[in-house]
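Changelog-linked ticket: heme C example.
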Amino acid sequence: MPSKSIKWQAMAAIAASLAFGLSACKGKPAEEKAEAPTPAPTPAPKEAELPPAPSGFPEMKIPEDNQQTPDKIALGHQLFFDARLSVDGSRSCYSCHQNEHGNGGETPLAVGAEDKELTRHSPVIWNTGYFDAFYWDGRADSLEAQAKGAWGGGNMGVGKDNLAKKTAELAKIRGYKKQFAEVFPDEGMTPDTVAKAIAAYERTLICDDTAYDRYAEGDESALTDRQREGWALFMGKGQCAVCHAPPLFSSAMAAPGGLYYNVGIGTAGKPEDQVDVGRYAVTQRDADWAAFKIPSLRNVTKSAPYFHDGSVATLQEAVRIMASGGIDNKNKTALLADRGLSDAEHAALVAFLGALDCGGTLEQPDLPK
Ligand code: HEC
Ligand code: HEC
């Protein structure tokens, strides 16, 4: 029976200490270090042999100057879906963060306003309110800053110096004018209040109702035998939880400013000067070269293609790459190594990830006129 007393903070702390260079195998039974592939198939693990499943999310940090209110959230919901925010009326935030695609993007690289191809894949934004660094490289430090970045940058194509002009245009829409006067009586509609409302809406995009969550709350029948086997591998031999710690399935939240690793995606067959340097562009630290934020794996079955460059089409292949040590390059993290899993064990990991499917949907709101 999974223990409810294991708090995510404890898990995250363990994950963070592992990530900060302690032995990844410390305190684990010796057989988990085995390099040799195990013959398939393995019998379904008994409940007593399974790792405890942490449940319950941390408290979300809400900025003092942007408290959640129902009216603000409703306003942000409309803005998130409104293509009139973009330079050419072609894109809303939702265009690239659709529920249909697990809340990430459908194309390998996102295609912004005026059909400009961007350099990265749209990430899943369920539970994004729990991060404190945003984008694959963590260059934005709040959802408010991120929203202005997306709006002014290539995603929506408005240009960061034109946000005030665009806002003045949108303020002519009577429905917005009225709502902004009510929700932000002192400021009215400005680029900052637009970003605040969108961020408030994003903080409601919470995925905590998966089969895994039901299992962690004590419902053993919520996972199939195959999924339980995958769960044991995820926590044990596969060493996935070092970086994708439950219950958020990203350890990025475990450290201020986020955690970033080079697992080799986007480095194969490219001259160094053509590699997306990821976190390095933010910190200029060699250790961050081609390192990217650990994505959450919630809803991952629905969010193909995978990785920051959308370079992998299927979850099977993404898992195979991760479990077999990533892609070698000059800066690959030592925390990712070939775990010697069999095909059946890979399949069990994929099955377990299916237990992280989110039930929620984003509803299309009525847009103001
Ligand atoms: C053209 C597609 C596109 C549009 C439109 C778009 N985004 Fe994104 N979004 C992306 C891509 C691509 C990234 C990752 C970019 C990077 O890491 O450099 C991203 C990243 C994000 C993130 C960071 C998630 C994380 O885990 O760090 C959030 C939040 C987000 N977008 C919200 C928004 C909001 C709000 C809007 C509307 C104002 C928006 N997006 C519009 C493609 C898009
Ligand atoms: C050293 C930290 C680390 C470990 C260990 C790790 N991952 Fe990851 N994982 C990452 C990072 C970083 C990315 C994003 C890489 C990128 O896009 O450049 C990622 C991406 C993924 C993705 C793609 C998610 C998406 O939305 O595109 C999947 C699936 C995944 N990991 C599964 C696993 C599995 C399964 C294991 C265990 C076998 C594992 N990972 C172990 C750090 C890790």
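Closing comment: Example verified and attached. The radius of gyration is 21 Å. Confidence is low (pLDDT under 50) at residues 1-36.
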